Amino acid sequence: MTDLSTTTRTTPTGPITEIAGDLDYHSAVRLREAIRAIDLRPGETLVLDLRGLTFCDSSGISVLIAAHRQAEIAQARMILRSVTHNVTRVLRTVGLDQLFDVRDGPEIDAPQQPSRTDLTRPGTRPGTGTD
Amino acid sequence: MCRTGQDPPPHAHQGPPPRRGDRSPGDTASDAVFSALLEDDVEELYEEAPCGYLSTLLDGKIAKVNATLLGWLGYTREHVIGKMSFSDLLTIGGKLYHETHFAPLLRMQGEVNGIALELKAADGTRLPVLISSKVKVGSDGTPQLIRTTVTDARDRRAYEAELLRRRREAEEARREAELSRKAEVEARQQAERDRNRLQGVLAVLQRSLVPPTLPQPEGLEAAAYYHTASVDQVGGDFYDLFPIGGGRWCFFLGDVCGKGPEAAAVTSLTRYTLRAAAIHDPDPVTVLSTLNTVLHQHYIGGDPRYCTAIFGTLTPSDAGFTVRLASGGHPPAVLMHADGTAEYLPTPGGLLVGILPNARFSAATCELAPGDTVVLYTDGLTEARIGPDGTRYGDEALLDYATDLAPATADKTVGALTTLLQSFGDGLDDDTAILALGIAPAGSP
Amino acid sequence: MTITGKADGPVVMLAHGFGCDQNMWRLMVPALASRFRVVLFDYVGSGASDVSAWSPERYGSLDGYAQDVLDICRELDLRDVAFVGHSVSAMTGVLAAAQEPERFAKLVLLVPSPRYIDDGDYRGGFSAADIEELLESLDSNYLGWSAQMAPVIMGNADRPELGEELTNSFCRTDPDIAQVFARATFLSDSRRDLASVTVPTLVLDCTEDVIAPREVGAYVHAAIPGSRLVTLDATGHCPQLSAPEATTEAVIGFLAQR
């Protein structure tokens, strides 16, 4: 079991948070607080870099959903980057691979076509990629 | 302390008393002259001694008293001699003590020393004294009278009172410490009782989230197990199995995100919504969509709550039963075949229930033949830690385990998985529900 | 508890009074032992008894002491007991005999007092203020009996101990227990219980007794149907020590009667 660690740095396009370790019922609260403390401006992109994330259970999924909502409310967007195989499988199980913008590699810090999925607006189809 | 007349007369010489033969006659003579000069009047010595003298007859009547004691008490000699008894000088408690202790002791031993009493003065004030008495015996051995010395003990009594006061304070402090210790113990016990009561309530609540006993549908075998991770928190796992008529049955199993009373409330809502929706239209996708709408509407504006769930129907078929199920973000069911193989029943694309207003759920269908068993579980099973490095049990291990186990009845499957869960020990820190549905192998009763 | 004397003789039980213990009877025991099986005891909290068995609830009233008497009777399976009670124990005997009369053959009430405080026409010998002062002085530990404890309180004896070994143990009482016993004794009113005595009873009083004056002895005699009254030619409240021969003679004389 690896203790969860988060590091957030600011870039011109928005904050990048690297999340490493196990994200479970015990550590989820800490990540939730860490993300809640991030000040997101309209148009910015919150990048959650998950290359070090070794485990994610349903509590972790809840935090990712909360982060997604937080970005929406701030009129920003959220991208999951460098998601490991294990976490991808979890995301797929719960269907969130359709909802979240999941990318590989570091080169998507400044996406040309922002992907927007509104969790609150009825009728929105979940999807990956661009609109 | 002043002594009775039996003591040697006071001697002015500071050293040991002179003994015949070890001093010169001149020394002895000058000592004697010197003391005679100082104490030449025995009567005056008796009257003015620094302690009270009192002689009483055997019945207690006062026969002789010195001026010192009369002065302390404020009585005249005429008032006392032959008229008062020793016990008349005592307080009521003193009288009682005199009767029950002092006088008997004096009778038994002929003398009593240093007894603390209080004397009543003529004006009613109390004089703390120490009393020593000795019986004067005549030449024929019969007691004649009692001689008593009375020493002023006011200072001593004040000192004793101070000691007693200090002791009482110390005892009071000790009692208070004891009380506060007791209060602490009581509070701890109360907390323990509260905790037990809460655990009792939680256990009842938890039981309400699963059927009290699992029904046994005609032609089917059903078994279930619920592992409670914490007695202090209600978990969010749930399952059910119920008939909808025409030999058809519905089942579901799921996991509400989060723990505690709020999660339990959502679990309850989820369970009853699924049952009600199934009566209306048992199609799995339709039922999950209804639940999705209910959960999403219910929590708009509040803290979003959602769950993962598999809902399915069992319809009698030629081979046995047709299973049709749909998943909303839930780990796939395991299908164990009569031929000893096992596989996941994929339900791709199903989203967490309640997260989006219009979520998509995908359905899957399979046939259950004799000897086949389908197993539903929550992620507590696959996410249990199995190594010191935090390795999780995982999907592959579960499929391998099911393959090894197959073919197996529902009972055997749940029994084996229960043993597996127990083998995880502390690695299993989440609630876990297991539901197995199967058809008895051909040829079995 | 001490059992002595003639093993197959009739049972005489000797019960000490307030602030005392069974040593009180020492001068009478030899004479009694030649004819009777003599049972001596200390009430719980007194003398050499097991203080751990004491509780302020049980011993806050005379019933608790009567219970001690009955407990001993039951434990030894005593019947036809001649009970000799000194001072407050006379009333303890009255209460015990009222509760289980079949155990008692005779009662000897030695300087009894059913009520120490004057009450209307009744002369108990003490005013309410007297008793109040007594209890207060006990509370303040100012009396002689607690002064006996003073060397203990102060950690070391700074004055000579009372000579003999007997003296050291004689009627030594824990001050806290003495307070409870004193309240039970001096605030008690057992006058109504006297009429319930059904066994032959001898009342012994003394010519001069500041604690149980002769009027009280006469009152007790009058209140117990068929009782006898003998006034001992003795002074003080402890005739068993001041006039042991006369007291023993009176007791034996009464017990010998059919």
Automatic annotation (TrEMBL), chain A:
CDD domains: STAS_anti-anti-sigma_factors. Residues 102-131 are annotated as: Disordered. The gene is rsbV. One of its GO terms (molecular function) is anti-sigma factor antagonist activity. PANTHER family: ANTI-SIGMA FACTOR ANTAGONIST TM_1081-RELATED, ANTI-SIGMA FACTOR ANTAGONIST TM_1081-RELATED-RELATED. Residues 4-98 form the STAS domain. Residues 116-131 have a biased composition (Low complexity). The lineage of its organism: Bacteria, Bacillati, Actinomycetota, Actinomycetes, Kitasatosporales. Belongs to the anti-sigma-factor antagonist family. This is Anti-sigma factor antagonist. InterPro entries: Anti-sigma_ant, MlaB-like_STAS, STAS_dom, STAS_dom_sf.
TrEMBL record, chain C:
Keywords: Hydrolase. This is Hydrolase. One of its GO terms (molecular function) is hydrolase activity. Pfam families: Abhydrolase_6 (PF12697). InterPro entries: AB_hydrolase_1 (IPR000073), AB_hydrolase_fold (IPR029058). Residues 13-249 form the AB hydrolase-1 domain. Belongs to the AB hydrolase superfamily. Signal peptide: none annotated.
